[in-house]
Write a structure and sequence with these properties.
This protein is mainly alpha-helical and 373 residues long. It contains 17 helices and 10 strands. The chain is globular, with a radius of gyration of 21 Å.
């Protein structure tokens, strides 16, 4: 029904902030990816204006007084609950203790190696795989987690190669081998020994690349949404809207497109939603953390499949040929949705203006859609 468009909310089995994103001082909770900067701190950093004052600061929901650090390695959490949840699930294995700044620590070496082969705009992280291993290592019921992870779509060997090529580029064979060596040194565990073999590692890599859902969190974005919902007299509304418009222009000049804390997660329910170029649902992160909200875009009748789009709005308006090219390159499948089927006789050409933008498809556009907040 229109009054309640939410279909479900879901927490990921594992999630992780992208490594370059974290290095560039996008501060997020190590567990739930909640943005840790206040909206004003966020706006100041992104706009390059250290004296900026935001109006209506009471609308910012970030509570720095609740933030906690791990007493051993100093990573930051938005709350004691998140610190405990991380410790209980995976952080005992992944905590670097006093070695958190040691470049020779095996986990730091693994992260450095990943950053050297996977640059922004980021679409995946080796730490998602690390948290899968650490979760199984720490679990009392290891089979439970292995069964959960086995629910995610797996790929044939040739498609695994394609996914590795997409994430790592032309020299992916050698890079995959060196990442596997570092991954094994840092994390090897008998219970998931198959994940450390060449074939198993490539399969795990492809699983994360195919099923990882982009997560975007932003205290500024959350503040802007709260401002939009304010009931204000006309003149005050115009002033506030003008302030926000100017702020985004300043941010665009200083920072460009990278506004959010970004990462990815494995979501059981969301990953079972198929793609359609005319979706009836969409995923978003309105709580400023990893909690995914799947919402209906229109009325959905009983028995109708819930479909999301892996393409952004601009890409969905392109020709069938262009849409198929993007989906094949990024997700390794050919779409046969209602829209694609109805356009099956369209010529297999892309218009000139589409060709000009074609180079952008794999990076920013994909990431913007994946991490919509």
């Amino acid at each position: 029904p229109p009054s309640s468009p939410s279909i479900f909310t879901e927490r990921p089995l594992v999630s992780a902030q992208f490594l370059w994103n974290a290095l560039y001082k996008y501060r997020a909770c190590e567990y739930c990816m909640r943005a840790l900067e206040t909206a004003e701190e966020n706006a100041r950093r992104l706009s390059g204006m250290p004296a900026l004052i935001l109006p209506h600061q009471e609308l910012c929901k970030v509570q720095p007084e609740l933030h906690h650090t791990c007493p051993h390695c100093q990573v930051i959490y938005c709350s004691s609950e998140c610190r405990q949840a991380a410790w209980d699930q995976y952080h005992q294995v992944l905590c670097l203790g006093p070695s958190h700044n040691d470049p020779d620590h095996p986990i730091n070496k693994l992260q450095d190696a990943w950053r050297s082969v996977h640059y922004p705009p980021e679409t995946s992280s080796i730490m998602l795989m690390a948290r899968m291993v650490a979760t199984v290592k720490q679990a009392l019921d290891k089979g439970h987690w292995q069964r959960l992870f086995s629910n995610f779509c797996s790929r044939a060997a040739d498609e695994q190669e394609e996914m590795a090529h997409k994430l790592l580029g032309g020299k992916f064979q050698g890079q995959l081998a060196s990442l596997r060596t570092l991954f094994t040194t840092a994390l090897y565990d008998d219970h998931v020994s198959e994940w450390f073999t060449p074939d198993g590692f490539r399969a795990l890599f492809a699983l994360v690349g195919t099923n990882g859902q982009g997560i975007g969190t932003s205290s500024l974005s959350q503040w802007v949404h709260a401002c939009d919902a304010l009931a204000l007299p006309h003149q005050q509304r115009e002033q506030l809207d003008a302030f926000i418009d100017q702020l985004y222009k300043d941010i665009d000049k200083e920072t460009g497109d990278f506004l959010n804390c970004e990462g990815s997660g494995l979501y059981l329910l969301q990953s079972s939603c198929n793609h359609s170029c005319v979706p009836n649902a969409e995923a978003s992160f309105p709580d400023n953390n990893f909690l995914l909200h799947l919402s209906a875009l229109r009325d959905i009748v009983p028995g109708e499949e819930i479909c999301i789009s892996y393409l952004d709005c601009c890409q969905r308006d392109r020709s069938r040929h262009s849409r198929h090219k993007i989906l094949r390159e990024n997700y390794l499948f050919v779409c046969s949705c209602q829209k694609c089927t109805s356009q099956v006789d369209d010529p297999d050409v892309t218009s000139e203006d589409e060709e000009e933008g074609e180079g952008d498809t794999e990076g920013d556009d994909m990431e913007d859609e994946m991490t919509d907040v």
